């Protein structure tokens, strides 16, 4: 490891540093959700159809997903300060491009530039959190991080809907521009270099394989709803993505300085925690995706009502994250994850018996308890997994953690919508109740997956052993030159 001018964690004034990082994360996550309700006005203004407009969200997701695996290399190659300033700078430039875009191509370009910055930002912020906080305080720190990234999606669609109802859609980007620039200035003066650099060599072929692999899979699954599962664009994209991804993984295992270190999966707790994180993330997006469709298309609720139904759950999740973080720090993650997965499983099965008469109150209350379960699992699982890694592997762990969620979110959304459509009965014969059957079967499938998550959580070690292993791993790495598998 090559030493740099990184500041020792104990010498850092964490308050301004955290303020800059959390503000950056909030802006990045908020930006992803702002266009949800703004697409119709954009379509009317730019005279484009829904398929074309959808690329403003799909393109952002693709570039974001492709950038995340590269961040492990970037974190090891560049200083904390320069990398964050670059990421926020790209995000700000992209936002300006979107605001002044005369047409769709320029607007899409702006979204791509935004996504490049956001894709770097999130893993970098998580890595910094794990560097500056000792292991006994990481749960609380990640809980605070979870509070921010939970509230941003909660207010994004509502804010976007209000803005586009009263002002032109470009106002959404004009609102973000000064916030991004203010964060950029604050980062310039307040951010410290806390990560150490090893200056790895860039393997260009790995970057190409990573882009084609993750990008192909993300595009294939995200476009399945538009083109159909049997269409050549979907099959070709998923096929090329899968083959290329396998090639990419094999190459990383052979390189001395891999772009992305897949050997983190040799740490058993990291692997188990990642699996749990994927399951609970898919469970979370199932509610956010399926429930609004059910409420608006099968239950005659307004879009505003469906948004208000999800709002209590988002607030509960946001407020619960710091609390679950403290519980994690005091007692370890095993029983917290078991309890959270149990709550997610029970409430998911409660959504598998919906009808056209199910009340708004029932939906809102059950979803709120469901999001409490998600809060008990999401950040604690991430923290428990990353706590097992020695310092040199944390950038790779955060990159893989974010990548797995991005990919699972794309695949999960596509599969859930497919299950819902295929399980629905003919509406001409069975009416709206026939369509609701598809929703119930979808939540039944998610409930089974959540139950598997409980079993995986039971395989985790006891809390005391869980807390002692990271230091042991670090000691082994120091004495042997590399970390041994758990």
Automatic annotation (TrEMBL):
Gene3D superfamilies in UniProt: MFS general substrate transporter like domains, Multidrug resistance protein D
Sequence ranges assigned to domain Major facilitator superfamily (MFS) profile in this UniProt record: 17-465
Composition bias type Basic and acidic residues, residue spans: 474-486
Record bears the keyword Transport: yes
Region annotation Disordered: where it falls in the sequence: 467-486
PANTHER family with a match to the protein in the record: MAJOR FACILITATOR SUPERFAMILY (MFS) PROFILE DOMAIN-CONTAINING PROTEIN, MAJOR FACILITATOR SUPERFAMILY MULTIDRUG TRANSPORTER MFSC
Keyword Transmembrane: yes
Designated name of the protein: MFS transporter
InterPro entries per UniProt: EmrB-like, MFS, MFS_dom, MFS_trans_sf
Transmembrane portions of the chain: 12-35, 55-75, 82-106, 112-132, 144-165, 171-190, 202-221, 227-249, 269-295, 301-323, 335-354, 360-386, 407-426, 438-460
Entry keywords, A to Z: Cell membrane, Membrane, Transmembrane, Transmembrane helix, Transport
One Pfam short name: MFS_1
Protein localization: Cell membrane
Membrane topology listed for this record: Multi-pass membrane protein
A single MF term (Gene Ontology): transmembrane transporter activity
GO cellular component: plasma membrane
Superkingdom of origin: Bacteria
């Amino acid at each position: 490891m090559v030493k740099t001018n990184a500041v020792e964690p104990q010498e850092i004034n964490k308050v301004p540093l955290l303020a800059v990082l959390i503000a950056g994360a909030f802006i990045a996550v908020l930006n992803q959700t702002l266009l949800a309700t703004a697409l119709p006005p954009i379509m009317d203004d730019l005279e484009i159809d829904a398929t074309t407009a959808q690329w403003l969200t799909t393109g952002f997701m693709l570039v974001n997903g492709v950038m995340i695996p590269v961040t492990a290399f970037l974190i090891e190659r560049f200083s904390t300060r320069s990398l964050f300033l670059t990421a926020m700078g790209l995000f700000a430039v992209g936002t300006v491009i979107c605001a002044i875009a005369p047409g769709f191509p320029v607007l899409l370009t702006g979204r791509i530039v935004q996504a490049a910055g956001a894709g770097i930002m999130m893993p970098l912020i998580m890595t910094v959190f794990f560097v500056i906080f000792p292991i006994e305080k990481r749960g609380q720190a990640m809980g605070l991080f979870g509070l921010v990234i939970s509230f941003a999606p909660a207010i994004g669609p509502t804010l976007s809907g209000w803005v586009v109802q009263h002002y032109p859609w470009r106002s959404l980007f004009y609102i973000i521009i000064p916030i991004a620039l203010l964060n950029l200035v604050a980062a310039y003066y307040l951010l410290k270099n806390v990560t150490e650099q090893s200056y790895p060599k860039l393997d260009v072929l790995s970057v190409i394989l990573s882009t084609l692999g993750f990008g192909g899979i993300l595009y294939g699954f995200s476009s399945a709803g538009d083109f159909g599962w049997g269409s050549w664009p979907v099959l070709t994209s998923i096929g090329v993505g899968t083959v290329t991804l396998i090639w990419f993984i094999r190459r990383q295992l052979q390189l001395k300085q891999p772009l992305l270190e897949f050997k983190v999966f040799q740490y058993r707790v990291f692997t188990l925690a990642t699996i749990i994180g994927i399951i609970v993330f898919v469970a979370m997006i199932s509610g956010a995706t399926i429930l609004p469709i059910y409420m608006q298309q099968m239950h005659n609720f307004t879009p505003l009502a469906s948004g208000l139904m999800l709002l209590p759950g988002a607030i509960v999740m946001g407020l619960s994250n710091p609390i679950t973080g403290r519980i994690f720090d005091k007692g370890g993650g095993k029983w917290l994850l078991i309890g959270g997965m149990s709550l997610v499983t029970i409430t998911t099965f409660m959504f598998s018996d919906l009808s056209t008469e199910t009340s708004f109150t029932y939906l809102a209350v059950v979803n709120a308890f469901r999001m409490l379960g998600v809060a008990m699992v999401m950040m604690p699982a991430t923290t428990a997994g990353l706590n097992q890694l020695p310092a040199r592997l944390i950038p790779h762990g955060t990159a893989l953690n974010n990548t797995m969620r991005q990919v699972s979110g794309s695949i999960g959304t596509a599969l859930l919508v497919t299950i819902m459509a295929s399980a629905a009965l003919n509406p001409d014969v069975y009416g709206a109740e026939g369509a609701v059957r598809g929703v119930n079967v979808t939540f039944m499938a998610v409930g089974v997956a959540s139950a598997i998550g409980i079993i995986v959580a039971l395989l985790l070690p006891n809390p005391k052993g869980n807390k002692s292993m990271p230091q042991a791993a670090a000691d082994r790495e120091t004495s042997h030159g590399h970390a041994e598998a758990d």
